[in-house]
Amino acid sequence: MKKIALLSCYSGVVDRGVETFVLEIGKRLGKDYDLTVFCPETIASHGKFKIKKIKHGIAKPKSSKGILGKFYLDVQSLKILIFTLWSLPQLFRGKYDLVIPVNGGWQIAMVRIVTKLTGAKMLITGHAGIGSDDAWNLLWQPDIFIALTHAQAQWAKRLSNDIKVVQIPNGVDLHTFNPKVPAAKISLPKPIVICASALVPYKRIDLTIRAIAMAKNLSLLVIGDGELKGAVDSLGKRLLGPRYLRLVIPYDQMPGYYKAAKLFTLASQTEAFGIAYVEAMACNLPVVTTKDKSRIEIIGEAGVVVNTGNLNRYSKALSYVARSNFNNKPYAQALNFSWNKVATRYTQTIRNLLGQ
User: Fold this and answer.
1) What is the pLDDT of residue 67?
2) Residue 191, preceding peptide bond in cis (omega within 30° of 0)
3) What is residue 356's predicted lDDT score, i.e. its pLDDT?
4) Which label site among 17, 35, 96, 230 has the fewest CB atoms less than 10 Å from its CB?
5) What pLDDT, on the 0 to 100 scale, is given for residue 12?
6) Which residues, in sequence order, are CB contacts of 298 under 8 Å at separation 6+?
7) What's the N-to-C CA distance of the chain in angstroms?
8) Residue 24 sits in which domain range?
């Protein structure tokens, strides 16, 4: 059986898009491959894959890395480097056929050196999105680059036309996220708009709060934590009063909170994919989000994409979707992103890559 190593230095520390990808794809690839996930904390593998714990003081990541972050010299990037360096001896000893590093920066450089020395292949997933971070990943000439959207695939091919690029989206567990999930009880006036997100600058939660305030009759439920939680709570309580609530809940309880809402929104400036979109749509929630090629592709007819930087347009879009009936369009769109379908495409791609 072919051996795969997957490096994820935040799995078990936070539950974000990349960490959800690691867990979900790991459970499925583990059926066909001898898969080991390198991570700092134990995660729920359910016996589908092995775990190698690399302990070195990884903390929750910050989005604002400053000028040093552009050169991967900030504290966060250096901790990823240390995590990777501690993993190297086991990568050499493990004789892996494929290595999948998901944290970017120096991790990509270190893994590329290892794979050149051992003859293993390197697969990169485009979780950073269109921009400098994934441009750096492509610079290291992975054996294959997985683009999450068609727009990202076209960008990657233009940037590095000699690298194999395959488009495979992120997914959603339709057994966990679906329209039949019981709704959680929430002490907010209806209709409720839900926003599930890390509270970091580029997610622009402040725009969502201001747009909800302009809509007058909508409540906002924010699910998430992060460096801006104080500023977000202060603004939410000041502009929305009893129409604002922020919670931090375990990931496995998310479906019930999606079901308690009327629609989902996220005004992030950029987004490589956004697993929260497909989770919300799987619970049959329409979506209002920022307009760009990738999100037009993901959302389809299951909501409205708009210039969220224009508060008037953003607010009107939220009100329109709140009073509209999208029937089962969101759930139908989510069916395109089943983790089982996604894993099948990964399996086929890896088989081709490893010459099976």
Assistant:
1) 79
2) yes
3) 72
4) 230
5) 83
6) 149, 169, 273, 274, 277, 278
7) 10
8) 3-170+338-353
**Beta bridge partner(s), residue 100:** 6
Task: Judge whether 32 lies within some domain.
Answer: yes
DSSP strands (E only) in the chain: 3-7, 34-39, 50-53, 98-101, 121-125, 144-147, 165-167, 192-196, 219-223, 244-247, 263-266, 287-290, 303-306
Count of domains for the chain: 2
Q: Angle, to 10 degrees, between the axis of helix 150-159 and the axis of helix 132-139?
A: 50
Q: Looking at residue 56, which CATH number applies to its domain? A: 3.40.50.2000
Considering the domain architecture, whether residues 154 and 17 belong to the same structural domain is answered as yes
Residue 179 covered by a domain: no
Q: Quick one: DSSP state of residue 239?
A: H
Structure tokens, 17: 């898009």
Domain assignment present for 42: yes
324 and 206 within one domain: yes
SS3 for 302? coil
User: What per-residue confidence (pLDDT) applies to 301?
Assistant: 96
Residue 233 CA to residue 252 CA, distance in Å, equals 24
Distance, CA of 328 to CA of 313 (rounded, Å) = 25
One domain, residues 325 and 346: no
| CB-CB contact of 267 with 308 (8 Å) | yes
Radius of gyration of the chain, Cα coordinates, nearest whole angstrom = 20
Instruction: Identify the segments of the chain with pLDDT beneath 50.
Output: none
State both tokens at 48: 């589908």
Please report the pLDDT score of residue 51 as a whole number: 92
